């Protein structure tokens, strides 16, 4: 790693965690410095994607007040009476939601979609809209706004079962700890540390396809937090609905034939619908050649 991006400082780790998940931290503020530092940061991002599939970003330019407001809007939404929430796509009848309520809505282009977002609580569209606009760049953006209850004794502790995300990148904002990923060096589930002000980033199925398998999608799950209910907002970024993602031609040659079939976001949605009851609803597996 370059000096500008390091692994998480030991003093930020909880004392009980003797073998924490290695966590690359990328300082995006350094992208605006001179070109040698910038290329160091870009290399660090590429290395984190290849080696681990995830990293956290600090100095990402989204203010803490915008992030806090988005979590507040989500939390207030899930406190509304069920009759109000039922007007929106909040069903948790998929095969991986063990103990989570969620709201999924498109977020880009914002002007086309915001009219379908909850109009209660009154702050929802303004606060979530500001966060959505700041966290996206190009293509499609799907916001998965999740609400998990506090873990109560004797209950199962898994809020969201293991899965990978379909897109290129997921940017995750969470109100407290609960995300776990499989550590590739030990094959053990590990808690992801919550760095102050940071956003967690991990790669999804379409990045594995684009990189022709050089980068691997990240399997993750969410546990219930024993201290408090939890909000997470996953911003999933991909190409537009019908644009096909293929293995990059620069990474395909005689020695490296394409490993995946082409597919689009709408192919993923079709796959989900066709495999609604199937616990092994793995989209990436269906693309392997
Ligand atoms: O709640 C979390 O930490 C993860 C949420 C997630 O994986 C998702 O919405 O796809
Ligand atoms: Fe996910």
TrEMBL record:
Q: Which UniProt keywords apply?
A: Iron, Metal-binding, Oxidoreductase
The GO terms this record gives for MF are: metal ion binding; oxidoreductase activity
Give the Pfam families listed for this entry: 2OG-FeII_Oxy, DIOX_N
Q: Residue ranges of the Fe2OG dioxygenase domain?
A: 138-239
Question: Taxonomically, which superkingdom?
Answer: Eukaryota
- Please verify whether the record's keywords include Transit peptide: no
Q: Which InterPro entries match?
A: DIOX_N, IPNS-like_FE2OG_OXY, IPNS-like_sf, Oxoglu/Fe-dep_dioxygenase_dom, Plant_2OG-oxidoreductases
Tell me which Gene3D superfamilies the record gives. B-lactam Antibiotic, Isopenicillin N Synthase, Chain
The family this protein is said to belong to: Belongs to the iron/ascorbate-dependent oxidoreductase family.
Protein name as annotated = Fe2OG dioxygenase domain-containing protein
What is the native source organism of this protein? Answer: Digitaria exilis
Source organism phylogeny: Eukaryota, Viridiplantae, Streptophyta, Embryophyta, Tracheophyta
């Amino acid at each position: 790693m370059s000096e500008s991006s390091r692994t998480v400082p030991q003093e930020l780790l909880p004392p009980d965690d003797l073998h924490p998940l290695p966590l690359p931290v990328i300082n995006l503020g350094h992208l605006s410095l001179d070109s040698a530092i910038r290329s160091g940061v870009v290399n660090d991002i590429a290395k984190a994607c290849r080696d681990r599939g995830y990293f956290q970003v600090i100095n990402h330019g989204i203010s803490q007040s915008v992030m806090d407001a988005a979590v507040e809007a989500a939390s207030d939404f899930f406190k509304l009476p069920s009759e109000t929430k039922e007007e929106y796509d909040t069903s948790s009848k998929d095969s991986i939601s063990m103990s989570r309520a969620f709201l999924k809505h498109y977020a880009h282009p914002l002007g086309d979609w915001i009219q379908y977002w909850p109009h209660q609580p009154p702050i929802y569209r303004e606060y979530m809209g500001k966060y959505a606009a700041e966290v996206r760049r190009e293509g499609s953006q799907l916001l998965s706004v999740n609400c998990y209850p506090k873990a109560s004794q004797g209950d199962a502790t898994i809020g969201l079962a293991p899965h990978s995300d379909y897109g290129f990148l997921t940017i995750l904002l969470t109100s407290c700890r609960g995300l776990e990923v499989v550590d590739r060096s030990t094959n053990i589930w590990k808690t992801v540390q919550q760095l102050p002000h940071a956003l967690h980033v991990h790669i999804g199925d379409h990045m594995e396809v684009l990189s022709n398998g050089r980068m691997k999608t990240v399997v993750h799950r969410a546990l219930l937090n024993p201290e408090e209910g939890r909000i997470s907002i996953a911003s999933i970024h991909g190409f537009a609905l019908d644009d096909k993602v293929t293995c990059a031609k620069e990474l395909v040659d005689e020695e490296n034939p394409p490993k995946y079939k082409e597919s689009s976001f709408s192919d993923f949605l079709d796959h989900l619908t066709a495999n609604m009851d199937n616990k092994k609803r793995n989209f990436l597996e269906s693309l392997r050649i």
